[in-house]
Amino acid sequence: MKYYIIVGEASGDLHGSNLMKALLKEDPKADIRFWGGDLMQTVGGSIVTHYKERSFMGFAEVIMNLKTILGFIKSCKKDIESFKPDVIVLIDNSGFNLRIAKWAKEEGYKTHYYISPQVWASRASRVKKIKRYVDAMYTILPFEKEFYDKHGYEVNFVGHPLIDAVSYRELVDEMAFRDSYKLSNKPIIALLPGSRKQEIKKMLDVMLSVVDDFTDYQFVIAGAPSQDFSFYQSIIQSRDIAFVDNKTYDLLSISFAALVTSGTATLETALFKVPQVVCYKASNISYQIAKRIVTLKFISLVNLIMDREVVTELIQGDLNTKRLKKELEAILNPEKREQLFLDYYELEKKLGGKGASENTAKLIYKAIS
Question: Residue 67 phi/psi, 5° resolution?
């Protein structure tokens, strides 16, 4: 069968690569063409465009780059017409993918969506579009199925793919890892400032502002695969800060605590059982728009899944040196850490067991074969 897969960021590349591996087990002769990243390329198939060429964060940034985005949508449609896939698999990335889904459905292509757009967070009216344009939806968060049920749309809860990604990773030799990156023997505080340039610029400088207050710890930046070190260096400047490129899981596996930009990384950090403070700061325009349309009590996946505050969220104005220092001190406290570990184990149970990629691949293959 011919599969056309579209992802839009680093986390989508990870989940897309694992889905591709699972599809190839179900369908060894699968012909896969994709918009993705390095991880998907290592699996095989044919890449059309790398996601880092299309990474725009926030409402204002999308509007400023609208002409470029529309150009990508147009070229994507042409490429699909040329490839003539048996199924189009859309992974997250709703702004781009829902437009492709509408066109694809009208053109008679089968459309499957893996990792639902966050319609439960804002603009729930998008469910109507999903029902019209998406033949099958595979959700990864336990509360999403109930949400869609209320809107009369039957979906498949397949479990969370991060369970597999974390469980199946190779164990890290901590001493060798430290030696490789010239790290000290101090406990590590990981800094995960995100993967897009806009968010890294806004988050990393604030994260670095507390380093001098915690001299008993080694701060290490987790570099995103989509960004060069030179970009980080422009923010780090003369500070003596360690940097690890494209080894976030290895870094988290040996970290004592973490400062994490809101997004998939908050859940990854929790699955590695690392106490964290969640950080988020957007442009003022994007934040003001988001405030008016987002209906959630929390922004981190950890708190959303648990439906209560497990990890502290420092949003917009609250993300400052004084607050960040206070909350980092809190998660270094043994009593607070013990409670976080208990909450993290409860969180993992809610996410279901292993096998999200395999479950999804089997359902896709069954539907089109």
Answer: -60, -40
pLDDT in tens, 199-221: 898 899 999 999 999 999 999 99
Main-chain dihedrals φ then ψ at residue 44, nearest 5 degrees: 135, -155
Q: DSSP label at 217?
A: S
Q: Is the pLDDT of residue 232 over 70?
A: yes
> What pLDDT, in 10s, does the model give residues 284-299?
666 555 555 565 688 8
CB 89 within 8 A of CB 116: no
Long-range contacts at 177-183 (CB < 8 A, ≥ 24 apart): 177/250, 177/254, 178/254, 181/220, 181/242, 181/243, 181/244, 182/242, 183/218, 183/220, 183/242
What is the signed CA dihedral for 295, 95, 319, 292, rounded to 10 degrees? -30
Q: Which residues of 296-306 are buried (b: 16+ CB within 10 A; e: fewer)?
A: eebbbbbbbbb
Q: Give the C-alpha separation, 247 to 223, whole Å.
A: 8
Which residues lie closer than 8 Å to 44 by C-beta, 6 or more apart? Answer: 20, 24, 32
Phi-psi region of 344 (alpha: psi -120 to 50; beta: other; left: phi over 0): alpha
Q: What is the DSSP letter of 210?
A: T
Alpha carbon 117 to chain centroid, angstroms? 12
> Crossing angle of helices 321-331/197-208, nearest 10°?
80
* Tens of pLDDT, residues 335-358: 999 999 999 999 999 998 889 999
Question: Could you tell me which of 170, 154, 4 has the C-alpha nearest to residue 91?
Answer: 4
Q: How many Å apart are CA 114 and CA 50, to the nearest integer?
A: 19
3-state secondary structure 6-46: ECCCHHHHHHHHHHHHHHHHHCCCCEEEEEECHHHHHHCCE
Residue 118 one-letter amino acid: Q
